[in-house]
Amino acid sequence: MVNVQRERKVINMSTVLVTGGAGFIGSHIVDAFIEEGHRVIVIDNLSQGKLENLNSKAGFYKLDICDSRVSEVFDEVHPDYVCHHAAQIDVRKSVANPMYDAEVNIKGLLNILSCAIRTGVKGVIFASSGGVVYGEPTLLPVSETHPKGPLSPYGVSKLSSEYYLYYYNKVFGLPYIALRYANVYGPRQDPMGEAGVVAIFSNKMLKEEVPTIYGDGTQVRDYVYVGDVAMANILSLQRLKETRAPSSIDDHAYNIGTSIGTSVNELYDILSDIIGFQKMARHDAPRKGELYKTYLSIDKAKEELGFVPSVSLRDGLKRTLAYFDRSDLH
Predict the structure, then answer these.
(1) Residues of the chain by 3-state class (helix, strand, coil), percent to 5
(2) Residue 94: per-residue pLDDT
(3) What are phi and psi of 263, to 5 degrees?
(4) Most exposed residue of 41, 245, 270, 274, measured as fewest CB within 10 angstroms of its CB?
(5) Continuous segment of H or E residues that includes residue 28
């Protein structure tokens, strides 16, 4: 496989609007677009994002994606492309309040898409999920064509969003790519949040506190470093210029992960080894609705996007720990 970093096509400078660009994943994507020479505009209400994450070279509007004033931003900046990462991301919150989840994730998307159509946006990159849209998989690694079976309102909203994108493409001709992320981890992830086991474990271990594993720890996930996710978005921007009308929602969807399954126990052991943490994990009852075993096939992303994850789990964890510890760990 070619080295994507060296061989990817040069993309002419564009104006890219990134929603959620002050958040964990979005801010890394903003950095990558700016490094590529693009003009980047961020919309973020800072409910989850942080100003300190925001690249100083990016334009910034503190605004909710459901706000009608989003249209004024589109009129002012005239984005060529939209990278939509703003969302309600907590599965348990979606279960507790599915109305709110739909308000943000579906109504917010429709607000962005209506503005995109009206102002002639050339394409949309959408942050979907490679875990929640498939449900508990029957075949591993999970390919994009695997039957869908979301088990939470959050999963339903992500899958519904892909159908809305398909509709806007078919009816209005709006190109799009949906990136179905595995478990993304890395610097800037919130260690106090409900999601992000790497950040939660890292923060606790560095403070000599014992993390809690829910269940027996044999649950398997696909952990992908946030820098590789940012690269997937760079590659997707080029791919948007070449996309044709899809025949199904899976045509323009790409799994972004590593194709490697890692158990929670294995993750705990690797982190413990890097840090020198000697304490055994505390266990609690498994969480209802949690998937047991899933990891993604990235063959399609390799073939069509040129996506090749470049950061191993151990190296990515070292970088993440260094961020939380503010020192180099080896």
Answers:
(1) 40, 15, 45
(2) 86
(3) -75, 160
(4) 245
(5) helix 24-35
What the block records as the tokens of 285 is 């009852």
Q: Which residues are catalytic?
A: 154
Q: Distance between alpha carbon 248 and the CA centroid of its chain, in Å?
A: 22
Give pLDDT, residue 190: 85
Q: What is the pLDDT of residue 195?
A: 62
pLDDT number for residue 273 = 96
C-alpha span between 22 and 109 (Å, rounded): 17
* Residue 63, both tokens: 């605004």
Strand, helix or coil for residue 30: helix
Predicted confidence at residue 1, as pLDDT, reads 33
Which residue, among 32, 34, 114, 43, has the nearest Cα to 77 in the 3D structure? 43
Structure tokens at 137: 């998989």
Residue type, 68: S
| Nearest alpha carbon to residue 113 among 40, 164, 73 | 164
Task: Look up the CATH number of the domain holding residue 161.
Answer: 3.40.50.720
- Tell if the pTM clears 0.90, that is, is over it: yes
Give the pair of three-digit tokens for residue 159: 């899958």
Neighbouring C-alpha atoms within 13 Å toward the C-beta of 151: 13
Question: Per the domain annotation, does 56 fall within a domain?
Answer: yes
CA distance 32 to 30: 5
In a domain, 285, yes or no: no
Terminal Cα-to-Cα distance of the chain (whole angstroms): 29
Question: Cis (ω within 30 of 0) for the bond into 141?
Answer: yes
Number of domains in the chain: 1
**What φ, ψ does residue 255 adopt, rounded to 5°?**
-75, 130
Average pLDDT across each block of 10 residues of the chain; the chain has 330 residues. List them in order.
Answer: 42 89 97 97 95 96 96 97 92 87 95 97 96 90 94 92 96 96 94 79 93 92 97 95 80 96 96 94 83 93 96 96 69
What single letter denotes the amino acid at residue 273? Answer: D
Q: Find the domain containing 98 and state its range.
A: 14-186+223-258+297-309
The owner of tokens 């799994």 is 255
Q: How far apart are CA 284 and CA 216, in angstroms?
A: 8
